[in-house]
Design a protein that fits this description.
The complex is a heterodimer. By secondary structure, chain A is an alpha/beta fold. Chain A is 34% helix and 22% strand. Chain B folds into 4 domains: 2-168, P-loop containing nucleotide triphosphate hydrolases (Rossmann fold); 183-428, Metallo-dependent phosphatases (Purple Acid Phosphatase, chain A, domain 2, 4-Layer Sandwich); 481-605 and 680-786, DNA ligase/mRNA capping enzyme (D-amino Acid Aminotransferase, Chain A, domain 1, 2-Layer Sandwich); 610-672. In chain B, the strands form 10 sheets. Chain B has a 6-stranded mixed sheet. In chain B, strands 3-4-2-5-6 form a 5-stranded parallel sheet, sandwiched between helices. The chains are: A alpha/beta, B alpha/beta. Chain B: It comes from Herpetosiphon geysericola.
Chain lengths: 465, 854
């Protein structure tokens, strides 16, 4: 990966003084993840251009340095080739004096604004916003932005993975430009950057001094820059589960929440669903409750708040979610903890442990099952476990049209195997009720649209015997 | 003096303190068989006489006893046990675990007890204690039998030294008899059909009037008949059946277990008051016409029968109404009742008959249970049990099961002799009993730590976290378990090559097999696609009958992790039909006599399945790398015009050029494996294993046979199938070895992935165990898409050479054993649970963290 910085300041070769790098030398710097080279493709009084070539060691990225651990799991990776947080680290190491604003021989140059152009041949812009994001980040700081999309393999049409070749020009001090690049490249890249250390907050404040606070996208920049700290902590777990990482429910909710009008923000659909479920269970007088596919455990928490529910059992297939739940459960007050059991299990296998319950809640789980597996699910839950009351919720596909961000024919979540219309759900529910001796009623869940119904639907199955 | 006790029983020693119980126990039993209340006290509080912990100590006694009895271990209780109340919990244990309680009473006089206690520390609890114990014991002697002890021995101090305990084999235990057997279902007085059946089974029947009930039956060499009971009632000639079977039992040509009808007959003959229904009246009437000697012989014959019999090291169990695993080999009233009647749920069905508890659905035992009692239209296998009562008296058939052949021999009823209250077809469904049962599997069979035994590896252990991971993957992604009869093992690469520029090279693979003692290998060109298992049936009726799937499916195509290969159902159907047509064209259905085949294949192009991977990873990396390095090269070229003398710059330019070539190589190689798939015509299927068909698995055929057989598919349907190029290489012929290496070089130079080297035989064992079934040697260009575009730069290659293969190879062998075991079990029509645990095991092992590049 290479970055070039050029100026038409007179004399342009002042750039060498500011950067502490002589234009006639080719210099080399060892970094933890590879080697940085600095050289000048052009150096005349009219025009001077410096290049920082970063040769990222692709083997070390995966295997780590001796005694260390790799930060990537894949050798086939764009990280060695795109401008990322690795570039920020390299800038900090190679141009530390310039970034600190130190220039002993020509101190006046530090504050000297000059026409500067930085070129980044490959920037990974993963956000859907793409070019717009680049503009929102750089234009408020006085840059003019030139961006050229990079053609992917011609055989691979319609890829949403975009790279841009960027050319940013502004009349700024070199120090300003370098700190902007330092902060904004990782924000733009929006990928994990393990090589930035723990003192993230103070570093951001230092580098953002004088410009970040006034930046209209300050919140976005800070959020993106700092949220990776959290991911640092989750690295181990993520690597563990990367192959089949379950999507979190929150992603669905992000779509759902767009229905709430900004003025009167209603409780999220997720919360509404749980409120309805708890009310139902309460009204039915149910005491022993199953939460099948309990996920992050939000419904469990609500159930434990009410002493009517004397036994609350959460079952989850994802071992990762279950491990998190178990940790959280340890922190519950003893009298709540005693009422809660957590099980690892699957709805496709008959499970003796699920027998003898008053009620089962199966909230937004159905649509994660393969259609071919539904028969097993029905036998297991309705036939074998046969709780007196079963509450099943699932999205209403008809409502998808009302989500502006959701393309037609796309499901709400990448792990959804299907989403049903109201008629499809009703047909299924009635067949199941008839086969396993339940009475069923179906209700809309969430704010109802006159044409498309509610975002979610609830089937209430009551044992008819 | 010999005291006989059953080999498995609960021995309760009874005697006052100081009576000599512990000494007696230690002399006659293993230390681990004895549970002493004193020892349990000491375990809890370090003082074996501390009466304060007695209650807890006895809890411990009962807990240990319960565990031992559950495991079928003889257990001796060493406590005073002088009061009925103290013995009562032990009697409950014996009843619960269906073992005989045996009382051994040590009748040591009070004086002797007291003298002994004086000599022992901490036993000075007063003479009155011992006196009371002796009194209690004396009172107990009369009631022991009534309490339920089946054997009571009383021993005086004079006898004690001469005692010898003799352990007697349980009546049901005939494990040392290995057959072969002909097990015959409920005869119910159908003498003509029985005679015909015995003849068909090869028995010769000679009439010997006045001698041995009138018959002498000679079985075919080495064979023996076993009757599952219900010899009498309903049919035309119960007396004839009795005579024939009694004669066979008498001479050792047959064994017999009692049925409920036989039992009732014996009670009637003993003069008990029984209701003479269901044909008993007619049988009694027929017996009236015989003589009293015969009637009493019948009674004794039935009474002497043992409730159930266990043969062949426990692999075969015969009982009239079946036998649950936990009751096998045990003795109690309940065991006998279960053998005679089975269990009922307490409900009655619409015909007024008791509803039977479906014990066979939950059966998990190792022993095949052969039983009758419940008439059904055809014999039914279910979870290693089989009901062979095909209702002969009701106009069905008389069925025999040949064991160990597992073949049925049937004689249809000559007439309908009785009308069943409930039609034979009453419970019949579209699917077979086993399939009906297997529609949903039980979680408890797949959770926690599992130990699987396979024919290639005696024990494969799956850790709890591995089975948890498998459950997750199986539930979220895999196809219906009914289809999932096989998952392929992982394949190890060759040992790392030290040749310049190579990470892998065939020399190491060929050398591995030579060192393993293999003489011939088959080298197969490796296709770069996606692994696909294809199961294809002649029609949907076969799919339904053999796989228990419903609907119009004719087969399935799934990935190496059990995921459905095609997301588009129409494309899948068209694909399967094309496979089906090719097989029809080759007449395989007839020539292999099979309605289905399972094929192990590579499905091309790679981009068909890996589209997402290419779009999100391979193509972007290629684009980014190309743009990035060409920008660097431009900047360097501009600089060199300014600084032509710089040595550092020259070196950097040279290095960047190498990188640029590597990146170009990477782009070329991944694109080589991609072509757009618009329709079925763009797909190619390269099968390399014919896994199995109805008649057999094919892993005993060598790879040359597989290659040749599968090549015919490409001739039959060239639009879909491609024949894989291969070479058979004699490892002792250096010229052949070199030719193989050259072939690999030409394959990889043309953009091929490389080759797979297999021993000619699929399964090879040497002194150190199983040999790797296959080793892959991937080409240097191909490896760019595994190890990254620039992997072969010298500084990178040197580090990448450090890789360990032992984990991968160990996994490959365990997965091979599981995969082939799954095929065996499926072909042998074992319950789905048994097939599923093997493929489940492969997925569980695949959760092991192994370098994914290998």
């Amino acid at each position: 990966m290479v970055m070039t910085l050029s100026t038409t300041h007179t004399p342009a070769t002042d750039l060498g003084f500011i950067l502490h790098k002589h234009p006639d030398r080719v210099q080399q710097f060892e970094l933890p993840f590879g080697t940085a080279h600095v050289f000048y493709p052009a150096a005349s009084p009219e025009y001077c251009r410096v290049a920082l070539l970063l040769e990222v060691d692709p083997v070390a990225l995966v295997r780590g340095n001796p005694g260390g651990q790799g930060m990537l799991s894949q050798y086939v990776n764009d990280r060695p080739y795109v401008a990322s947080s690795l570039l920020s680290v390299a800038l900090g190491a190679v141009f530390s004096s310039a970034i600190a604003g130190v220039c002993n021989k020509r101190p006046e140059l530090v504050e000297q604004r000059m026409p500067l152009t930085v070129e980044l041949p490959v920037v990974a812009v993963r956000a859907k916003a793409g070019l717009g994001l680049v503009q929102r980040l750089f234009e408020p700081l006085g840059y003019s932005v030139e961006a050229t999309p990079i053609e992917l393999d011609p055989s691979q049409t319609a890829s949403h993975h975009a790279y841009l070749s960027l050319k940013l020009s502004a009349n700024l001090t070199v120090k300003q430009l370098l700190t902007h690049i330092y902060v904004l490249i990782p924000v733009l890249d929006n990928s994990k950057h393990y090589w930035i250390g723990q003192d993230e907050v103070s570093k951001l404040l230092r580098k953002g001094d004088g410009w970040l606070a006034q930046h209209p996208e300050c919140e976005l920049i800070t959020m993106r820059y700092l949220c990776y700290q959290k991911s640092l902590a989750n690295t181990a777990l993520e690597q563990l589960l990367q192959a089949t990482a379950p999507e979190t429910v929150e992603q669905t909710e992000a779509v759902d929440d767009e229905t709430a009008t900004p003025e009167v923000r209603q409780p999220s659909l997720h919360t509404q669903r749980h409120t309805v479920i708890v009310q139902r269970l309460k009204a039915a007088g149910a005491q022993r409750i199953l939460d099948l596919g309990c996920g992050e455990g939000k419904l469990l928490r609500e159930l434990l708040k009410d002493a009517q529910f004397s036994t609350v059992v959460g079952m989850e297939l994802s071992t990762r979610s279950l491990a998190i739940l178990q940790q959280r459960a340890e922190r519950l007050p003893a009298h709540q903890r005693q009422r809660l059991s957590l099980l690892h299990g699957s709805l496709l296998y008959r499970d003796q442990r699920l027998k003898g319950f008053d009620a089962a809640a199966i909230v937004e789980v159905l649509e994660h099952l393969e259609l071919g597996h539904l028969a097993s699910f029905e036998q297991t839950v309705f036939g074998f476990a046969h709780p007196k009351l079963v509450l099943v919720t699932t999205p209403n596909r008809e409502y998808n049209q009302l989500f502006p961000s959701l393309p037609t024919d796309q499901l709400r979540h990448s792990d959804h195997r299907f989403e049903w219309t109201r008629a499809e759900f009703a047909a299924w529910a009635e067949r199941v009720a008839a086969s396993y001796n339940y009475r069923v009623t179906i209700e809309p869940l969430g704010p109802e649209d006159a044409n498309h119904g509610a975002p979610s639907q609830l089937g209430v199955f009551e044992d008819a015997s | 003096m010999e005291l006989g006790i059953p080999e498995f029983c609960l021995v309760v020693l009874i005697g006052a303190s100081g009576a000599g119980k512990s000494t007696f126990a230690q002399r006659h039993f293993k230390p681990t068989e004895i549970i002493s209340s004193d020892t349990c006290r000491a375990m809890l509080c370090d003082d074996e006489t501390d009466q304060a912990v007695s209650a807890d100590a006895f809890d411990l006694v009962y807990t240990i006893a319960a565990k031992r009895l559950a495991l079928g271990r003889l257990t001796v209780i060493d406590a005073t046990n002088v009061q009925a109340a103290a013995r009562q919990p032990l009697m409950a244990l014996a009843r619960h675990y269906h073992v005989w309680p045996v009382a051994i009473v040590l009748q040591t006089p009070e004086k002797v007890c007291l003298e002994r206690n004086v000599g022992r520390a901490n036993r000075n609890f007063g003479d009155f204690v011992v006196k009371r114990q002796v009194d209690n014991l004396r009172r107990s002697l009369r009631t022991l039998r009534d309490e339920g002890f089946r054997v009571v021995y009383t021993i005086t101090p004079e006898q004690v030294d001469a005692i010898e305990i003799v352990r007697q084999r349980a009546w049901s235990n005939r494990k040392t008899e290995h057959g072969p057997f002909d097990i015959i279902g409920d005869v119910h007085g159908c003498y003509p059909e029985l005679e015909r059946l015995l003849l068909e089974l090869g028995y010769s029947i000679n009439l010997t009037p006045g001698h041995n009930y009138g018959f002498t039956v000679t079985p075919p060499a080495g064979r023996r008949a076993v009757f599952v009971g219900d010899l009498v009632d309903r049919g035309p000639d119960s007396v004839g059946v009795l005579r024939l079977v009694m004669s066979m039992v008498e001479t050792g040509a047959a064994l017999c277990v009692p049925g409920n009808h036989d039992d009732k007959l014996a009670r009637a003959l003993a003069g008990r008051n029984v209701k003479q229904t269901h044909g008993l009246a007619e049988t009694m009437q027929a017996l009236v016409e015989t003589d009293e000697t015969f009637r009493q012989a019948v009674r004794r014959f039935i009474e002497a029968m043992v409730s159930h019999l266990i043969f062949d090291d426990g692999k075969l169990v015969v009982a009239h109404a079946g036998m649950k695993q936990e009751l096998q080999g045990r003795m109690s009233k309940q065991v006998r009742e279960f053998a005679l009647y089975g269990e009922t749920t307490g409900e009655t069905d619409e015909f007024g008959l008791p509803v039977r508890y479906p014990w066979a659905k939950e059966y998990r035992g190792e022993g095949l249970v052969v039983y009758g009692h419940t008439p059904i239209p055809q014999p039914e296998w279910l979870n290693n049990t089989v009901d062979i009562d095909t209702g002969c008296a009701f106009g069905g058939a008389l069925t025999a099961l040949r064991y160990p052949e597992r073949e049925f021999v049937q004689v249809p009823a000559f007439a309908q002799y009785a009308i069943p209250k409930r039609p034979l077809e009453y419970n019949a469904t579209q699917l077979a009993a086993q399939q009906e049962n297997d529609q949903v599997l039980n979680l408890s069979d797949f959770q926690g730590k599992l130990k699987l035994s396979t024919s290639l590896m005696s024990q494969i252990t799956l850790r709890e976290e591995q089975t948890a991971a498998a459950l997750e993957v199986m539930s979220r992604f895999a196809i219906e378990p009914q289809w999932l009869m096989y998952l392929p093992p992982t394949m190890s690469p060759s040992e790392t090559s030290q040749l310049d520029g190579f990470l892998e090279h065939p020399a190491e693979a060929l050398d591995y097999y030579r060192r393993a003692g293999v003489n011939e290998v088959v080298c197969e060109a490796k296709h770069m696609g996606s692994r696909a298992i294809v199961i294809i049936c002649r029609d949907s009726a076969v799919a339904q009958a053999r796989f228990g799937v419903v609907g119009e499916q004719i087969g399935v195509c799934y990935t190496r992790t059990g995921r459905r290969f095609f997301n588009d159902p129409e494309l899948e159907t068209a694909f399967l039909q094309r496979v089906q047509q090719a097989i029809s064209k080759l007449n395989w259905w007839e020539s292999f006599d099979s309605g289905w085949f399972a094929l192990d294949c590579e499905l091309l192009p790679w981009s068909a399945k890996a589209q997402d991977l290419i779009r999100h990873q391979y193509a972007p990396v290629g684009a980014a790398a190309t743009a990035s390095i060409s920008a660097a090269q431009t900047a360097l070229q501009q600089t060199v015009t300014r600084l032509p003398e710089s040595v550092e710059l020259q070196a950097l330019i040279a290095h960047t050029q190498l990188r640029q070539q590597a990146v170009q190589g990477y782009v070329d190689v991944y694109q080589h494996y991609c072509w757009p798939v618009q329709s079925l015509d763009d797909l190619r299927l390269a099968p390399f294993h014919l896994l199995a068909c109805e008649q057999r698995p094919f892993y005993d055929r060598d790879h040359e046979w597989h290659m040749q057989t599968l090549a015919t598919l490409a001739e039959a349907e060239p639009r879909l199938f491609i024949a894989t190029e291969y070479r058979v290489v004699d490892l002792h012929d250096q010229a052949k070895v070199e030719q193989a290496i050259e072939w690999w070089q030409s394959l990889t130079a043309a953009g091929g992935e490389g080759m797979v080297v297999k021993p000619k035989q699929w399964v090879v064992q040497n002194a150190r165990g199983l040999v790797q079934p296959a080793i892959k040697c991937r080409g240097p260009e191909y490896l760019r898409i595994i190890y990254g575009p620039e992997y072969d730069l010298p500084e990178n290659l040197a580090r990448l050479r450090k890789r360990g293969l032992s984990g991968k190879r160990s996994l490959a062998l365990r997965e091979l054993a599981l995969g082939l075991e799954a095929l065996d079990r499926f072909v042998n029509r074992e319950p789905l649970r048994r097939v599923h645990e093997c493929v489940f095991g492969v997925l569980a092992l695949e959760s092991e963290p192994v370098d994914p590049r290998l």
